[in-house]
Amino acid sequence: MGTIVAVARDEGHRFSKPVLPTIRLLAGLGVEGDAHCGETVKHRSRVAVDPTQPNLRQVHLIHAELFEELAGRGFPLRPGDMGENLTMRGLDLLALPAGTRLRLGSEALVEVTGLRNPCVQIEAFQPGLLKAVLGRDANGNLIRKAGVMAIVLEGGDVRPGDSIGVTLPAPPHKALERV
Predict the structure, then answer these.
(1) Which residues have C-beta within 8 Å of that of residue 95, sequence separation ≥ 6?
(2) Is residue 147 within 8 Å of 60, Cβ to Cβ?
């Protein structure tokens, strides 16, 4: 089990999101009042390609442990800085299989859809950060460390201190891919 460290949202398409005391998740839509809330894609690059695509990126989750790793490499970051809605601790988000369900507090339920694909906006935010959130495994495969994306199955309020329950999908498990 993990714990929510911070919650954030922004009605505008800005890179970072302000941290708030609470956010509300809406089933099938995402974070109420967030620029990425909706049934279809809201990320500008994806809207330009096909605005009718389903929104598999309703909620962005990132692990606080990444911020600690990056701070040690000279990139000081705070919750919300990388545009995430939920900053959490104690859960290896990147190792979860696709379809994992996360109970956030007592009300909200999200399903992990895939990895966040880091973009050039990260580089504009802090030079060198894009390279820092990408890595390679022992076989040379690309590792994306910038968090995971999810859809909202059950809505509700989420706040710092809420626990995170994990339900894995039935095997065989499918590794996360970029969405």
Answers:
(1) none
(2) yes
